[in-house]
Design brief:
The protein is of the alpha/beta class. Helix content is 50%, strand content 11%.
């Protein structure tokens, strides 16, 4: 009888553990295609460069899911994972208009003209991670390092918030940085410094 009692207790415990495990919320990480990341980066950077005519923002709320997989993902909601995690491939439009991103964009817009002037003097270059680095230019001024620090802080905030808002997994951080670096390269002007994918620095 005791053996049967112990076996019953173990079985009951296993059932309870499975029920508890089944209640653990699941985080759905979204691995966007690279072209979606590139387009989102372009939209954000256009807001910085063209304040009078910014690129239209992606809708804050997604459109109705078009597949059973997307409907299932939408039903999960914005719950955080504590024990289980999964990564799925879906192609929604990334969100780019959170308050944090908009605030950082506004700060970058306020220093854009000054940084562009420093770039034209060869003082600042675009690296291959979507950030700025100091270059050996002429007549750079004593504020150039502070400008680079402030600009990079806002760029890093934008990329981090972009990943968080869109549930992009940390393993895709490199692809996000590449998307923003490529967007900056599209706006290089003659003489601007930039870092190639292999790490070499050159001028446009």
């Amino acid at each position: 009888m005791r053996a049967h009692g112990r076996a019953g207790s173990i079985a009951l415990g296993l059932v309870f553990a499975l029920l508890v495990a089944g209640c653990v919320p699941v985080t759905v990480n979204i691995s966007f295609p690279q072209e979606k990341l590139e387009k989102a980066a372009d939209q954000i950077e256009n807001k910085v460069r063209s304040p009078d005519n910014p690129a239209p923002a992606a809708p804050a709320t997604p459109t109705a899911p078009s597949s059973a997989l997307e409907r299932g993902l939408a039903a999960l909601g914005p719950r955080e994972a504590t024990a289980q995690e999964t990564t799925v491939q879906v192609p929604p439009t990334p969100r780019i208009d959170s308050p944090e991103i908009e605030k950082a964009v506004a700060a970058r817009r306020s220093r854009f003209r000054v940084l562009r002037e420093r770039k034209s003097k060869g003082c600042v270059g675009e690296n291959n991670q979507g950030l700025l680095e100091l270059r050996p230019g002429q007549d750079c001024g004593g504020d150039v390092e502070a400008l680079i620090r402030a600009e990079n802080a806002d760029r890093e905030l934008i990329m981090a918030e972009f990943m968080r808002d869109n549930r992009i997994p940390p393993t895709d951080m490199g692809r996000v940085h590449t998307a923003f670096a490529n967007s900056h390269r599209k706006h290089l002007r003659p003489g601007d410094w930039f870092q190639q994918d292999g790490g070499e620095w050159t001028r446009q």
